[in-house]
Design brief:
The protein is mainly α and 320 residues long. It has one domain (2-6, 34-311): ABC transporter involved in vitamin B12 uptake, BtuC. It has helices at residues 2-27, 35-67, 79-92, 100-121, 129-153, 157-160, 175-202, 206-211, 216-238, 244-256, 260-284, 293-315, and strands at residues 122-123, 126-127. It has a two-stranded antiparallel ribbon with strand order 1-2. The longest helix is centred in the N-terminal third of the chain and has 33 residues, at 35-67.
């Protein structure tokens, strides 16, 4: 009961902060705050930031729970790089930016990247923490190289301008992009909500979860699919944004505990808050120059990752 009360308090506090950030995001910027600017530029950008933040926060919970890896983050395990490669590939074959077609290809390539990482990382029936990170680095490097080749050789001028997908930016967000990403995010959230009780049991280990009646392979596959949907939809619109899916679930878990249903809800709101705050900083810190929002989250998230990495290593007695 105490954790439920904390969940409500933290969730409400984050929601109120989110409302304040929405007001700031809509009313402050380089251009005047007239109705055309707000409706056609700032509002879709704000909604996109909220949607991507919800997706990344929830995806981090699913990856950490299903892989039982405290360091899992969509960008660190190659999911985001796979989605970005699919988005660039979709643009290169002539699909319009911010479309369902580009998002669909991003989901497919992101799923392949996730499958490769899990396949490489499995040993004796379990997914190793260190191998997940190393496999994620390899998949991300491959995705970046493939994107570079596609961008540099494409005849479409639009494809040559999509380097923002490697650093993350909401500068090209519009209503078409918002509409293209919400269906995948909605499906991912629904899947995540129904899988949450099984993820609680999965924390006992595969054998303990089996003994409790959990179909471990199916639950893990569905959780990873939901994480891919939640991540790829946002990456296809705004590019790769790291560390949100790592930092937010950890911070929320410290306050409300490990119950995945509560963790998913509060992390979704927390992800929206963190990413909208990061985008606001990216827009206003050096106004009128805009910083890539992925750079802001990386600067804030990298030190946290180092701390978590050291803690995970100490907990497992070293990785020599």
């Amino acid at each position: 009961m105490k954790n439920i009360g904390r969940s409500w308090i933290l969730g409400l506090a984050l929601f109120l902060i989110l409302l304040v950030l929405i007001a700031v995001s809509l009313n402050f910027g380089a251009a005047s705050a007239d109705s055309v600017v707000i409706w056609n530029i700032r509002l879709p950008r704000t909604v996109a930031a909220i949607g991507v933040g919800v997706g990344l926060g929830s995806a981090g919970v699913l990856l950490q729970g299903s892989l039982r890896n405290p360091l899992a983050d969509p960008a660190l395990v190659g999911v985001s790089a796979g989605a970005a490669l699919g988005a660039v590939l979709g643009a290169a074959i002539g699909l319009p930016f911010n479309s369902i077609g580009v998002t669909s290809i991003a989901v497919i390539t992101s799923s392949v990247a996730m499958a490769v990482v899990v396949w490489v990382s499995r040993s004796n029936g379990r997914v190793e923490v260190v191998t997940v990170l190393l496999a994620g680095i390899a998949v991300s490097a491959f995705g970046a190289a493939a994107m570079s080749i596609i961008i540099s050789t494409s005849d479409l001028a639009g494809t040559r301008s999509v380097s923002f997908w490697t650093t993350g930016s909401f500068s090209l967000s519009n209503w078409s992009g918002v509409n293209s990403m919400w269906p995948a995010i909605a499906i991912g959230l629904i899947l995540a909500f129904f899988l949450a009780p099984s993820l609680d049991l999965l924390a006992l280990g595969d054998e303990g979860a089996y003994a409790s009646g959990v179909a471990v392979s199916r639950v893990r596959a569905l959780a990873l699919l939901a994480a891919v949907l939640l991540t790829a939809a946002g990456v296809a619109v705004v590019g790769v944004i790291a560390f949100v899916g790592l930092v937010v679930p950890h911070a929320v878990r410290l306050v409300i505990g490990p119950s995945h249903r509560q963790l998913l809800v509060v992390s979704a709101v927390g992800g929206a808050v963190v990413l909208l705050l990061a985008d606001t900083i990216a827009r206003l810190a050096l106004n009128p120059i805009e910083i890539p929002v992925g750079s802001v989250t990386a600067i804030l998230g990298a030190p946290v990752f180092f701390v978590l990495l050291r803690r995970a290593r100490n907990r497992q007695g070293g990785w020599a």
